[in-house]
Amino acid sequence: MDKATLIGIISGIAMIIIPVIMGGGPMAFFDLMSIFIVLGGGMAATLISYKLSEVTNIMKITAKAFKASETNPEDLIRLLVDLSQMARREGLLALEAQQEKISDEFIKQSLMLVVDGMEAEVVKETMEMELDSISARHTTGQALFKTMASLFPAWGMIGTLIGLVQLLKSLSDPSKIGPAMAVALITTFYGSVLANLVCTPIANKLAIKSKEEILQKQLILAGVLSIQAGESPKILEQKLKTFLSPEQKQKYAKAIEKEAKSSE
After folding, report:
1. Tell me: the pLDDT tens digits for 55-88?
2. Which of 113, 116, 203, 246 has the fewest Cβ atoms within 10 Å of its own Cβ atom?
3. 3 state SS of 232
4. pTM, to two decimals
């Protein structure tokens, strides 16, 4: 679970609910017609903009914003160094037996190409095409939420216009002025909340996670190509450490130091 996403959502909701309650009660901010206009209209416009299969995957895409990364670059480097040492001792064919123990499909796929004797240029080209495909899928998910972030406020404005028209038509009947005014104001509120608390933040989080994943896969590709080229594990390790931030390098160094002490 990505704690930052969860904390942000909960805090954002709290920042809205607390003033609402202190200002007189939440029911004043609930209007079924406004929800129907903003949420229904926004999703209808999203369906027009995207394929049905892309929109129906919205919950799966949203889950990625709340899901913590299963791997980190430090662990990937240690794995690739171990594979490099094995390849140096026993040859590249020895890596085939290790594929079942590896959960990362990108590593397994790239190692399979190496074990099958593909040339380095072919391995690089094939895996870079895979990276492009992953990046394209990620971009579609981000664009979906960016689109909704622009559509919900627009439908909030449409609801406001509907409410104003109803308001002007009901000036002679004071009992209808209140509901019409509620629709006029609350639709804008709903649209702004959905855009700025949900859609835009999730799109931004997905973009960050996409960059992290692509960087990790670039690290893997560099490591596998180094293994195929027969470079020493030490050189491979130094090369892959360039993908790490200063904080990650410190964390990696501490982990290596801890392993060395435990093996003594």
Report:
1. 888 888 888 887 777 778 888 999 999 999 998 8
2. 246
3. coil
4. 0.82
**Maximum CA extent, the chain:** 91
CB-CB contact of 84 with 236 (8 Å)? yes
- Please name the residues in contact with 62: beta carbons below 8 A apart, sequence gap of 6 or more: 202
The values of phi and psi at residue 93, to 5°, are -65, -25
> Residue written as tokens 């998910």?
141
CA distances from residue 20 to 8, 189, 190 in whole angstroms, order as listed = 19, 12, 13
209-233 as b/e, with b when 16 or more CB fall inside 10 Å? bbeebeebbebbbbbbbbbbeebeb
Q: Do the beta carbons of residue 66 and residue 6 sit within 8 Å?
A: yes
